[in-house]
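Changelog note: in this version the structure field was regenerated for every chain. One regenerated record is shown below for reference.
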Amino acid sequence: MTQINKNKDAITWETFSEGLWVNNPVFVMLLGMCPVLAVTNSAINALAMGLATMFVLLASTILVSLLSDFIPKQVRIATYIIIIATFVTIIDYVIQAISLDLYNALGAFIQLIVANCMILGRAEAFSSKNKPLKSIVNALGMGIGFTFALLCLGVVREVLGAGAIFGIDLFGENFQPWVVMILPPGGFLVLGGWLLLFDWIKQRQAKDEEQEGRANVA
């Protein structure tokens, strides 16, 4: 029994990397699509939303893991939402204090972090069943994976739609921007492109692993 518990609590590379690749919140599980499509019209907005979401994810993960034994099962989901909403309120005021322009650009999507299924799902499926350190490592991987996905969209959309990255002009005055890329349809187009690329890479990896397995058997 002791050995089983040790294996359950062990922190491995997979604990961290799950959210980066295998179960990336955006490119695999398709979670948090509202901010993914709405605020990624620029790289800075994408980064800010990703970091804000990561903060809420990490903070709520720690608290849920610490309090999981004291939260009655009948009200666990409601309790998780209250915890998440508390940290969303904190990050909402922090962003508002740092930059009103950024706050206005992100709009209501900061408050909508409360409804992000990735955060509630981590609380219910992982944090409530594991110790704080392991939960933090897993949440960090998920948060980085989510931020990375937002940046993938934000960078492409800003470069093509405005000829800039993080507000820095790249191509000069003669560049003709693809205005559609910073409009809502551009979000769907870029997301579709990244999903295709992500799926192609995973299929290639699966084929390589299959061929390697056959070679080892032979």
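Spot check on this record: The longest helix spans residues 184-217. The chain has one domain: 17-217.
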